[in-house]
Design brief:
The chain is of the alpha/beta class and 466 residues long. The chain has 12 helices and 26 strands. Strand 12, helix 9 and strand 13 form a beta-alpha-beta unit. The termini are far apart.
Amino acid sequence: MAIIGSPSWWGEGLLERQHDDDVWTLADRAVVYGELREHVGFLASRMAAEGIGRGSSVALRMPPSLTLMYTMLAAWTRGAQVMLIDVRLTAFEVDRLLRICGPQFLLSAQPASPVTRYLVEDVPFTLMRRATGRPAVPEFCLVQASSGSTGEPKVIGRSSDSLLAELERYAALEGMPRAGERVLLLNSIIHTMGLVGGVLHGLNSGAQIVFPSRMRAETIVETALTTESNAILGVPVHFALLARSALGAVPSLRLAVSAGELLPLKTWTQFRQRYRLPISPVYGTTETGIIAADLITGSEPPILGRPTAGMEVDVVAGELRVRMECTPYLWSDRADRFHDGWLRTFDRCDRDLVNGVLTYRGRADSVVAIGGLKVDLMEVEQTLLLHPHVQEAVVVFGDVIEAYVGGDTAVTAADITNWCRFHLADFKIPKIFRIFEEVPRNANGKVIRNRDLLRRQEETGAHTHH
């Protein structure tokens, strides 16, 4: 069926190129493209009746669900700008974003019983027109808030040209899932890798997207086996979970892709040993989408791969910069990050002059001075991760170096301190250790690296050692 939307929209081909009976997603059941188009068309009609059209700004706050994807696509067919709000954010965080961004419409999931499944099929929602809303910023069709792992979230806009260019980069990337292949998607569908590399690439390529019912290692592996998945997309915490699982390999799996943050070498090694498959890196930012990747050679971290087709990058004083036509930041120039057509990533990288391969060397803002001596906090983190009982580590600096460590029950502050004394100079050793089962994360699932945020979100059961 034809979509009842605007006369044309930027992603028209994404919804129209597959047959009605082709499978789109596999969750609790298979959903075909005919059903997808029917739901999108129905919601587009509902939005039209409410006055949503070209130039409208629409915020979506829903749990991961088929409804969220239908609604997002329906808003785009109407020519609206879509703002994605993580349902896990607090009321304070949501109000702050709404105040900053000023969407005209808010589509919000109705309060209900706690969600027990990873991907819900049907989510009832309310559609509210906001009196203080403002029309869309013309050049942006997608608005996202950055992870906020280092402080205040940044509000980032993506244009339709930017999204289509990123889809072209994925389509040209050797090893990406193709038509007929099944992709087990663990990334959040409202964040860049899950949304573009997962959902939109699936629409663009004809690859089928598979969702597990729960984020447990056993469920994820069982889903991969049952659906004969060919690829799995996730973030480091997913692969750490799978690497520690007692389950074995998945014969149909040819590709595992990690995004979001640097994958610890320990996780890469454990996963490869258990599943006989290396984890391939994909590197990008919310501002740009995918920047570099290597889905073929299975390189060990911290190698990121080559820049993807059409991406112009430069390494200035050891820091990676990316060429962009205009600032991606809404309502702020962010001159510290975007200047004269270049985006500062604040990621330190080496670039091989022969083959162009990028290797990650830590954050540019991770070097601190202590008593006149320079300490790279990423070096301390990597040293902690070599400890046999440490799975995760975050090192921050306030008055002293502090380490937030995630590990098994056998790990103690005394053990880690002795480990550091053997591997690090005295002035590099953290003075405070906070030990968790898992290190604190923000609503996006990314490790928090801001000291004040870490302290605020520190769990009451954590053990603090000086």
